[in-house]
Amino acid sequence: MKQDPVPAPTSVWRDQRAIALLLAASLTVMANATISPALAGLEAAFSDAPHAEILTRLLVPAPSLSVVLCAPLAGMFADRFGRRRMLLIGVILFIITGSAGLYLPSLPAIFASRLALGVAVALIMTAGTALIGDYFTGNQRSDLVGLQVSARNFGGFLFISLAGYMAAISPRLPFAIYGLAAFFLPLMWVAISEPVRSAPRTKMQGNKGHRAWKWLILTLALLQMLTNMLFFVIPTQLPFFFKVQGYNSAVMTGSALGALMLTGGCTALLYARMKRTIGFYGNYSLGYTMLALGFMLIGCGVKPWIIFAGAAAIGAGYAMVSPNFVAIALNLAPERHRGLVGGMLTTSIFLGQFLSPWLSTPAIAAFGYSETFYGISLLLGVLALATALVGGRELIRRLLPATG
Q1: Name one Pfam family in it (predicted).
Q2: 216 and 181, same structural domain?
């Protein structure tokens, strides 16, 4: 049932809807990496199962494949049947499918549950993005998209750390972490209401979106896919890089990813203020510069502290550019197509993640780790320069006082 819109408080922290959407955002980071610490134990537990080695490794990327396939459809359904229902269904499905590894009897059954988990993530992310556009405007929207990235980073740090301890007790125990979503569901049920959308004939001019919004959103989604494809090289290739360098792979990878998530979470808290100061293009340029610096430092691989500094720079850079995609897309898209746009953005994120190891692994085999990281750094540097040139006028207008 649709309800009258609730006026948004001055601060998003005082708005229950914002808190509910941040909790939803923190869930999506669980989808892939939470069970990573349990993979070796699961492989041993199901060693007698056919194809256990490959199925175990596919448990991590399996949700991404489902998201890529389902998110566009989820976006169309959100526009047609409503966002609130889709979000709540997604969270309930997330709880059921995410925790299924606790009790399912076979590895193929667990793999199937991971595919179903991807459907839940597609519903949650698509509905969440559309609801941000429906509920919030201006600075509040910028605040919230930055806080979403922060929630994912801090949530990832907490959930993956917790999973590491639980996997040491039992390889099935990390699946229980997905059940934490049950504690978030009551607030979502109460706080999230279906926004009232204007009828087509009574739409105000401001709700129609940019006249070229389809092409602009497609371009934005492709850039987001490329960004996530490059960023995801770190969690997928860093463990093997450390092994080649002669370090303790498990300890170093955990420490590097911890540094990445913490700096990303802290930087994302500043996103709205930075956007108001230097604009979207300024955030892109600075963020891509930080990403390029991070890959260059890791490519050096001389000392552990340099690698950790590189990981921290990558986390900060990604936190600067990632919220931009959602904020810009919601500004461009018509009100009635925000679900579709949310689905496109969700698809581009997970498609980039899914493609990343397929493209980076052959490059590493051909050129080596350091050379591949340097190449990625160069590409990110080009993106930083391009966004700086395109947004130069806007940046100057914001940094210099108006004259005449």
Answers
A1: MFS_1
A2: no
